[in-house]
Write a structure and sequence with these properties.
Layout: E1 7-9, H1 14-24, E2 28-32, E3 38-43, H2 44-52, H3 61-64, E4 71-72, H4 78-88, E5 92-97, E6 100-106, H5 107-113, H6 118-121, H7 123-127
Parallel strand pairs: 1-2, 4-5
Antiparallel strand pairs: 2-3, 5-6
């Protein structure tokens, strides 16, 4: 789980999001409302698929962010995280403890720790065939 988290305001431009991801060497940013509450995640894939590929570069982060935020508690085990990722067809889960974001776990994190759980993650591909 990554615990050095990077946030961005929902009204930031997609350019600002891409620049921040590059500067911080991350593939996703937690999106916060103007009042500071985190409610979404914007990924590098969101920027490519929803902005670049559609030639819509004038968008704000809130327009392309993945919502709702899919979360798990820190007490969940890796197999549960892999199962949720597979069912929800996502590559990252936000870990929330006592109502606060404490980290992000990615499918890469899971596969590095336990390659045998990869099958749970790819269930999303099998289910759509």
């Amino acid at each position: 789980m990554k615990t050095s988290l990077v946030t961005i305001d929902e009204n930031a431009s997609v350019y600002e999001a891409a620049e921040l991801m590059t500067r911080k060497s991350v593939g996703s940013l937690l999106v916060k409302r103007t009042k500071g509450k985190i409610y979404a995640l914007v990924t590098d894939a969101d920027l490519v698929r929803k902005c670049v590929a559609k030639r819509k570069m004038g968008l704000k982060v809130k327009d392309v962010a993945s919502k709702p935020l899919v979360t798990i508690p820190p007490t969940a085990d890796l197999s549960e995280a892999a199962r949720v990722m597979g069912l929800k067809r996502i590559k990252r889960l936000v870990v929330v403890k006592d109502g606060r974001v404490s980290g992000i776990i990615s499918e890469t994190d899971i596969v590095q720790i336990s390659p045998s759980l990869y099958d749970l993650i790819v269930e999303r591909d099998r289910a759509t065939r």
